[in-house]
Amino acid sequence: MGRRPLIQRDAVARTAVEIVDEDGPGALSLERIATRMGVRAPSLYNHFADKTEILAEAARLIVLETPDQGDVVDGDWVSWLVEGAVAFRGALLAHARSVPMVVENFPQRLLERLYARHCRILSDNGVPIADQMFIVESVHRMTIGSAMCAATGRPAMAPPHDPELFDTEVVADLESGRWTDDRLFVAALRALLDGVRAGHGTPVGRGVDTGGRA
After folding, report:
1. Would you tell me which CATH number, out of the four given (3.30.300.30, 3.20.20.150, 1.10.10.60, 3.55.10.10), belongs to the domain 9-63?
2. What is the pTM of this model?
3. Assign residue 210 a region: left if phi > 0, alpha if psi is -120 to 50, beta otherwise?
């Protein structure tokens, strides 16, 4: 039997995640990864082409921390998608300082496999094919966007700096604190998906004004 390599790809990626979690993406370098692992930096090139490849593998590990979902219950694909998005968002925010890294280096092949699985499940639950990719892409973008806002310290529905610009009831609602990041995310996602479900039979996106863009 051959000797197990001193450096494992998974260990390198996990070390990268640890460094970014501690000090942010700007602190990551091949030298720092190597020092923490007790190896020489050039030896990392035996396993990764460059730093970008390490970032992609680190992003993949974080995405894969999302808990597995069960089956759709009673055809309620909206709740199934919301629960999955909440779980994915939670996995991202468990590594809040790494969220920008995940967004920039999201593993495309993994994303396509996830999209394909979601489309099959939506199809099994009666969602028209014309709606499926709109749904899964919208859910993904909303989840990523919400995670980015929460990770970078942009609070949801915070009281305005210039309250005189708003109706007093709007200000009172914002000051009530009822719109947390988590609650806003779930409410916005459900509003979108419930609207799509209510419009079955009319493919979404038809007649949408894109301002002249395709």
Report:
1. 1.10.10.60
2. 0.85
3. alpha
